[in-house]
Amino acid sequence: RRALRKGDADLQKACLVEAVLVLDVLCRQDPSFLYRTLSCLKALHTRLCGDPARARALLPIAQFFLRHGEAAAVDSEAILQHLFTRIPCELFHSPTLAFEFVRFCGDSLPLFGRNLDILKQSFPNLFKLLAWNSPPLTSEFVELLPWLVDPGTAVEMLHALLDLPCLTAALDLQLRLSPAASERPLWDASLRNPSCLEASRDPQFQALLQHLLRAKASGTVEKLAPLHQLLQPMASCARVVQCAEAVPTLLQAFFSAVTQFADGVLANQLALLLLERCDSLYQVPQYEARVHRVLSSQFLALCALHPSLVVELAKELLEFVGSVSSVRSRGAMLASVAWAIGEYLSVSWDRRCTVEQINRFFEALEALLFELTQSRPSAALPECPPQVIAVLVTTLTKLASRSQDLIPRVSLFLSKMRTLAQSPAPSSMHREEGAAAVRARAAELLTLLKMPSVAQFAFTPSAELSKPRYHRDANT
User: Where is the AP-5 complex subunit zeta-1 C-terminal TPR domain positioned along the sequence (predicted)?
Assistant: First the structure.
C-alpha cells in the first residue's frame, strides 16, 4: 500500500531494503531458502524497475543475484545491465543513492566474476555520480579506479577524467532543460539563466553532448573543444569548481593503476594524449595549472617506464616544443618534455636514435630558448619561469654532449646566458633568485663542456654506472 506521508514512504523503502538484506543472510546460512527467495526477488525487481523512488532497493537485489545467482543457475547479467544503465543516468543527483551505489560497486567487486566487464564498460555512467557528487565520492573512486581501468578503456577513461568538470556542467545543463521542473535538485543560483541554455539546442552541439553523457564506453574519442566553449558560462559554478578540485587526485590514482600494466603501445597513446590535452581543458579557475602539474609528472613516469617514447614521438615532441605562445600556461609540461628529451634521446636508450634527430631537437629547443630569453614579457608572451629556462639549457647541453659538433654553439649560448639572466632592476627578490639560479646553472654546464669526454660521461652514463651495485651477497 502506498504511504500518504513522506516519513512513512521513507520507512517503507528502508524496510524493503532491510528485508532483502535479511533474505540474503538467510540464504547464505540455509541454501534451502534460495529457490523460493529467487522467484520472490525476481517479481520484486520487475516491480521496482519502473519506480525511480524505490531505486535504492535495487542495489541489495543486485547483490543478492551476484552472490547466489551461480548457485541457482540464474544469470544476473540483465539485472546488472539495467542497474548500471538506468540508475546513474537518471538519479545521479541523489547524493544518498550515489554514495550507496558506489559503495555497492566496491563491496561487490569479489562477486562480479565474469560480469566485471559490465562494471568496466559502465564507467561513463559511474563518472556522472562522481561529477555531481565529487567531494564525498572522491576517496571511493580512488579505490574503485584500479578495477575500472584496463588496456581497452584506459585512453577513453583518461579523456573522461580530464573532462569531468565539463561533465558536471553538462549534467547541470541537462537538469535545467528537464521538463520535470518540480523534481529538479537545487543548483547554483548565481546562474539563473545561463546563455548556453538556448545554444545547447543547436544540432551541432547535440552530438557532442550525447557523447559526453553516454552511458557506456564507446571506444571512440571526440574533441570537445566546442562544447567547452558552449559551457564556459557555467565554469564558475560551485559544483563545477568542486569537481575540478578532485580531478588531480583521481588522475594520480588512474596513472598508479595504468602503469602496472601499460605496454609500449598504450604508453605511447597515453603520452600523446597528454601532449594533446595540455591546450584542450575546460577553463575552470585554477584547474589548468593543477592538472598540468599532474600531467607533467606522469609524462616523465611514462618515459621512465618506456624510454623509447621520445624517439617514437619525435615528430609530436618537436611540434610541442616549437610553440612558445603558451609557455606560461603549460610551463610545467614544457619542462617535463624538455627534461625527457635530454634524458632519453640517446642511442644508449634506443638504437633508433640518430645524430640527425639529436640535431633537430637541439635546433628546436635552441630557437625556443632564444625566443624566451630575448623577448620582453608581454600579454602575448608572458615571462618564462626560471625553472623552465634551467631545464632547457641543461637539455641543450646534454644533446651537445652526444653530438659534439654542437658544443661550440651551446658554449656560446651559455656564455651569453650568464649576462642575459642578469636584470639591471629586478622587480622582486623571487625574480632575482631565479635569475641567479639560471646563471649558476649556465656556469656549471659551461665548465663541464670544456671537458667533452667528462660531459658525455656525466650526462649519458651507461646503465651499469647509473645503477651501480658495488656489493653482491653470495648468499642471495
Answer: 140-476
